[in-house]
Amino acid sequence: MTSKSESAPGRVAYINARLLDPASDLDATGDVLTEGEAIADLGPGLFADGVPEGTEIVDCGGHCLCPGLVDIRVQLREPGEEHKGTLASAGRAAVAGGITSMVCLPNTLPVIDDMSAVEFVARRARLLGLTKVYAYGAITKGLEGKELAEMGMLTESGAVAFTDGVTALADAQVMRQALNYARTFDLLIIQHPEEPSLARGGDMNAGEMATRMGLVGIPREAEVIMVERDLRLAELTGGRLHFAHLSTGIAIDAVRQAKARGINVTCDTAPPYFALNETAVGDYRTFAKLSPPLRHEEDRLAVIQGLLDGTIDAIASDHAPEDEDAKRLPFAQAAFGGIGLETLLSVSLELYHNGYLPLLQVLGLLTCNPSDLLGLSAGRLKRGAPADLTLFDPDRAWRVREQDLLSKSKNTPFDYRPLQGRVLMSVVDGRRVFSRDS
Amino acid sequence: MIEDETAFSYTHRHLLGIEGLSPPEITALLDQSEGYVEQNRQADKKQGVLRGRTIINLFFEASTRTRTSFELAGKRLGGDVINMSVSNSSVKKGETLIDTAMTLNAMHPDVLVVRHPASGAVKLLSEKVNCAVINAGDGSHEHPTQALLDALTIRRRRGELSGLTVAICGDVQHSRVARSNIHLLNTMGARVRVIAPRTLIPAEAARLGVEVFHDMDRGLEGCDIVMMLRLQTERMHSNFFPSIREYFHFFALDYDNLAKAKPDALIMHPGPMNRGVEIDSEVADDYGRSVIREQVEMGVAVRMACLELLSRNLSNDISRNL
Q: Is A331's CB within 8 Å of B204's CB?
């Protein structure tokens, strides 16, 4: 495996590709021409009369070429906890996973609640020249859930939306004000939907597994109660509300009904919630200790249903690096979270391989949908769009192994899982930033 | 002494829990224990089967009776026993469970007896050492030797476990004793009931194969065995019941509700008892019914059997000597 960053991109012809663009419903054999940092042209038979001279040719070998993936939930750990992960390590892992844009949570040290922190992330990411990195601003100063951060000015500095990260905004009045104030500037508020007092002390999903293992359970109601409360507040204020990583059927039902009522709400989920259930924590596997916790099999199926019927708008990796010191502990003492950049596409492709969703729909959940949620310019194969591309073989088999992962922390809940579908190349702004040696 | 290998069918390296053990495995442990009961009543209690073996009692949680019981068991079999109490403060100083395990492992113990306040911690530790590990209680998960000593006590009084109705009363939510007993009794063919206020019954408890009651009179009706649990206030975060007074009023064992059980029903308690909380003093001290002291006696025999069987398995494990 190599990852490389090339200098000024010229004209590149990506030929012999299966072009997949969910936004335009395109699934056809064809070619893409990039010029500089943008897509110049694309379509079937683009080079019927031959590739123009002076154009570099990349033969895609009949594999799938789609818009670069947009991952809207990533924890970077830089600044502040670089021993767990850095912008560089996350960037390398992201491009290996076909992710060309990612959005990081503000729960760094210091918290991204002022302009300089937003600019720090943007500047560092630009210098690295790997995946494009955007930042969320904090809703409240210091993520303390009390005073609103300067959302308007943070937006001017580049914050794409607002969230208190892995902390639920618990105070209903603060949430009401956040939604109301954010509406002034048409900003999106993202909630980690978990009623904190119901989740307090909890380690995993409540139910038979927790009972057998002698662990404190977090009931599904912790999620739906926060979702239902915030839906009321969104209705009251007219603010734009987004729920991150929904994990339960009852919460997805609540969002489904709210959408039908015309409330301005969206939501996402992460691969663990449609690919794993609570049995993954059996034997006290702390790599499968996630927040929200892995749920019952019924919930996993409900998440798939939510993806299928469009209730769930996007899939995000929920990448949360934790080092050995934080994970090699008794279950109750171990940190929550799992890494996910390198497995995002492959695990999501299980939805296609298992016959639940068409391939284009899966890709839409990973490209144009999340891009549109945040108003980014990414996620589409079209003339003039940024030349952010992902080439993948939907059928190539591989097995997740801790030692093969590029992420600095190795805490994947999918360790040893056989997967089908692998990223072969990633292009960011016309530069090939990753290509996999076969 | 030539040992008949076929007579023993507990072949695991560790004893981490009861869940998953088969009836023959449990029977093997109980049969082996039985032999030590008489020996422990002799003037000369000492044997040499663990001569040269090192046993470390590693307790991350305060304990007097369990630790003493394991210590006696090891010494009576001729082993060298060391007690280590690791207070919470030294854990907070930075040494992790795994650091501690690796350090001790480097001293080549043969058996580690471990108690830890976190569920699953003993299993985690067992993965990092190459000696045998006995779980002496991990969080709210399991306490296998307690279930075995309870089973031995019952078996000696009633002949067999199969067909008995056993009521486990009290703080099932936080109790590792309850979980181990539920698994053991179900595996051996007893019928298990649990009786407690709803806040002290864990989610989907019925899925463990128990009948759930919230009323002492109804739950105790027709029972052969009444097992009381200690209220584990140290594991309770908030509001599991309003007051000790109210708990005692509705859920303590007294002569009134005991009358619903069979006339010869045995009363058990894993100790330490909270008199006036989960059990009325009169009942606890009723020598005709209460076998609480006998449980303590069986504890030593059971732990001798566990230490011996695991040591024997170690001798057969060539890979360990590499």
A: no
